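Long-time lurker, first post.

We've been arguing in lab meeting about whether pyridoxal-5'-phosphate would sit comfortably in this protein at all. Half the group thinks yes, half thinks no, and nobody has a model to point at. So I'm putting the question to the forum: if I give you the sequence and the SMILES, can you give me back a predicted structure of the complex? Inputs are below. Any interpretation is welcome too.
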Amino acid sequence: MKPTRRPANPCFSSGPCAKRPGWSPAVLSGALLGRSHRSAPGTARLVEVIERSRTLLQMPADYRLGIVAGSDTGAVELALWSLLGARGVDLLSWENFGEGWVEDVTRQLKPVDYRLLQAPYGKLPDLEAVDPERDTVFVWNGTTSGVRVPNGDWIATDRRGLTICDATSAAFAMRLPWDKLDVVTWSWQKALGGEAAHGMLALSPRAVERLESYTPPWPLPKLFRLTSKGKLIEGVFQGETINTPSMLCVEDWLFALDWAERIGGLEALIARADANAAALDRWVRRADWIEHLAADPAIRSNTSVCLQFADRSDVEANTARQKAIAKLLEAEDAAYDIGAYRDAPPGLRIWCGATVDTSDIEALGPWLDWAWEQSRP
Ligand SMILES: Cc1ncc(COP(=O)(O)O)c(C=O)c1O
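Top reply:
Settle the argument with this. Predicted structure of the protein with pyridoxal-5'-phosphate, as tokens:
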């Protein structure tokens, strides 16, 4: 039977993610458009973005936070290009985005002494094999496999290497152990449903020390340059972005922060993501045709929940069925963009971050069952 109740908001994409409940373009009406971002009111808004993001994420006072170009990718690449090469690096990857950073380091940043710690979709590599003498590059939450690290216990407090953490689908949804992380990046388009444009880069004092004491052997484009004459350019972390930001995106992000603060801050954001993931899990347990890609609940994401078909005997048929399900649900305005990532095992990926309402996850389940039946070849 076709369900009668649709999710009020069918946006379950894993990026750009659903806007905040109640969002409308009217929130952008006060944006500082046509003005220089270097004017006093322009800089004030950029400083506000930094200070309020820092407070919301409960960052240590001695960490720098800046707005950078190129969304999360820009922030991670800035860090890799600027910091790597001083010592060996352990590259962790267990899905597409971690694999992308492996490609960057091994193919673009030569010569770097690297070790690969990899695992297939659905699993984590051996975190205990990470060497604290070396740098470490990893994603906190693997958006395309729905596998996250369970905590930061595997990171040594007295490490000599730096930890570079792509936290774009973890920030604002999971607790990050700041003392274990030297570089943390995220974008605006993910967990708070901001507009895609800019990235944010957080640096520990040790990361700053590396920047000021080490010059990589490869050229650094202007967009990546955080030091001048061996000293950190502090302005980047005080609202003086390297290049021109979109003040429309800035305005949207300020409203995202408003919403997050209003509902109760980081704890409330994490609780909403947890409640969404739990509601989806209740449905998965009932559905016999689908299961979690991350079999172990301890490493299962509460944002990008990835599911695979229970019968995996015919990958081609499953890929076709995934596409058919996604198309049917889009046509019904019941769910948008829920197909598994193109390099992941066929199945579904459903964003459960804080901007999604739990009632919409609950309303989605019957539609998924309906689409499964309808897509029977
Ligand atoms: C873990 C991770 N890293 C990097 C990216 C790329 O982010 P962006 O497109 O915002 O640069 C994504 C986007 O989904 C992601 O989930």
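For your lab meeting: The chain has a mean pLDDT of 98. The pocket of pyridoxal-5'-phosphate is lined by residues 15, 71-73, 97, 139, 143, 166, 168-169, 187, 189 (CB under 6 Å). Whichever side wins, do check it experimentally.
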